[in-house]
Structures are given as structure tokens and as C-alpha cells.
Amino acid sequence: MSQARAYSATGMALRTAVILFLFVVLFTGLLSGAYLWTKPALEASAIEEKMRLIDEVLPRTEYDNRLLEDALALPPTPALGIDEASTVYRARRGGQPVALVYEAVAPDGYSGKIRLLVALRADGTVAGVRVTQHRETPGLGDYIEPKKDKNKTRPWITQFNGLSLASTEARAWKVKKDGGRFDSVAGATVTPRAVVRAVAKAVRFGTENRERLFAQADGGKP
After folding, report:
1. Quick check: 198 and 79 in contact, CB under 8 A?
2. Which of 10, 31, 73, 131 sits a CA distance of 20 to 30 A from 222?
3. Tens of pLDDT along 156-168?
4. What is d(CA 27, CA 44) in angstroms, rounded to the nearest whole number?
5. 3-state SS class at 174
6. What letter does residue 93 receive in the DSSP assignment?
7. For residues 108 and 197, what is the distance between their CA atoms, to the nearest angstrom?
8. Cα 197 to Cα 69: distance, rounded to the nearest angstrom
9. Residues 41-74 pLDDT 10s
């Protein structure tokens, strides 16, 4: 009897193991199928979101190339405040350089890093700047975001539009409290001070490396 019970227990264990194995295989197959089914939609959504951000700093009417495909991989770039790999997108019209779109980071925001997207035209002027990520104090330092800025006619972040190193002295790339040209909200100068510094560095990087960035094949280093 005991031997029969042992055989029975072994059989039940084997059946259970087989059932569990089949369940895992089936579940993994369903997950894989779902991923493959939704992958195109997820990729399309990611591209749409990326283009939405780029549209805020550089209108599509200014270029005619496939912007996301005309990209250059950048290594960690201290001049941009970035300690990981990033990408610069190159806008062209009729094959001629129009603008560079790239990321920058202000490491010294009031509540940590402030991530930025900068568009610099081929003539060295700023087409636009947007904050893409931050943790600044709601209702105080978050006016660096247009949607949080109470001034809807001329949001704070648009003060960079049209500026260049050639037209704006180095000492002017500061908030007015520090003797520069940029406005800031009273009681919340740490945030704009960090953004202005980061944008100034980003503009200098793009200006000094413009020709090489437009000319290099993907994977090159500026």
C-alpha cells in the first residue's frame, strides 16, 4: 500500500509539474504575442511624443527632412550637463542645414536636475527652449514650464528665442538680479538662474560644434 501511495504521489507531482510548465509556456506565449501586437502602436506613440516636444522648439515648416532619422549619437557631454549618451537631431531644408535640436541639463535646479530641449538655428540663434523634466516647487519655480506659467502671452521660457552668442554678451546670460537680461519671479530665482546657465552653455556648445555636428555621420564624436 505504501509503495502504491508513493507511486500515486509521484504521479501527481509529475502531473502538477507538467501542468505548471504548460501554463508558463502558454502565459509566456500570450505575453509575447501581446507585445508583438502592441509594439508598432507603442513605437508610433513614442515617435509622436518625441515630435510633439520637438515641434515646441522648432516648427516643422522650417525643415523638410526626416528629422528623427537624421540623428547623431552623442557620448556623455559635460558641456551640456549630460552624463549619459544623448542624441542631436539635424533639421535640413533642401539638403541645407537649418537647425540642431538637442538635450541639455541644468544640474543645479532648486529641487535637482532640470532637463531641457534646445533648438539652435544654423545661424546661431535660438529657435526655442523647453523644459522636459523637472521637480521644481509647484506654484513657485515651475513657471519655467509654459503650461504652468501665468503669463500665457509671453511665457518665461520664450525669453531665449532669437538670442545668440553673437547678439548677446556673455555677461547678459544671467537673471536680472545678477546683472543679466533675464526676468525672474521674486522669491524663485534659483530655478531660472540654473536654466539660464544651462541654456547659455548649450548655445555655446551648439555654436562651437555646429559645422561638425551637421557634417558628421551617426556615431561620431564632436
Report:
1. no
2. 131
3. 999 999 999 999 9
4. 26
5. coil
6. E
7. 9
8. 30
9. 544 455 577 889 999 999 999 999 999 999 999 9
